[in-house]
Amino acid sequence: MPKIDFYILSDPAPDAALRYACRLADKAVEQGHRVFVRAASADEAQRLDDLLWTFGDRAFLPHEIASAAAPSHPLVRVLVGCEIPPTTFRDVLINLGTDAVNEIDDLQRIAEVVSPNRKPAARERFKMYRDHGAEPTTHNV
Q1: Which of 52, 88, 104, 114 has the fewest CB atoms in 10 Å of its CB?
Q2: What percentage of the chain has pLDDT greater than the value 70?
Q3: 3-state secondary structure at position 124
C-alpha cells in the first residue's frame, strides 16, 4: 500500500497547483526517486511541462511529456502525462487530476495536490483510498 498525502492548497491562483507539483517533483528527484505527474488534461500537462523549465532558479529538472515509448534519455527523472505511469516511474505519483488513481498497489507514494476549487473531488478520492485500505494524510499548505 502506498503512502498517500493530500496537499490542500490555500492559494487560489490558477497555476498554484502546478507550481506546488513542481516543488514536490523537485524534492522527490533530490531524494533519488522517479516521478510521474498526472495532469488533468493534455493542456495542463503541456503547461506543467513549460513550467518545469522555468520554476526553479538553481537547477534543471530533467523531464518530458510521457509517450508510448520509453523516456528519450536515461537522465529523465520526471514524466508528465494524463494516464497511469509506466512501470519505471512508480516511485512517486503526483496527482493533479480530479479522479483517483485506481492502480495504486504497485506505487510507493501518491501526492494529491488539491487546489481550493477541487476540494469536493478530493474528498471523494480520500474516501476511495481509505476504502481501499490506505491511510491518507492531509497537509494544509
Answers
A1: 88
A2: 96
A3: helix
For 137, which DSSP code? E
List, for residues 59-82, the tens digit of each pLDDT value: 678 899 988 776 778 888 999 999
Task: Say if residues 51 and 61 touch (Cβ distance below 8 Å).
Answer: no
E-strand spans in 1-141? 3-8, 35-38, 63-65, 78-81, 92-95, 109-114, 137-140
Q: Which CATH architecture has domain 3-140?
A: 3-Layer(aba) Sandwich (3.40)
What is the distance between the alpha carbons of residues 53 and 22, in angstroms, rounded to a whole number? 10
pTM across the whole model: 0.93
- Residue 85 carries which DSSP code? P
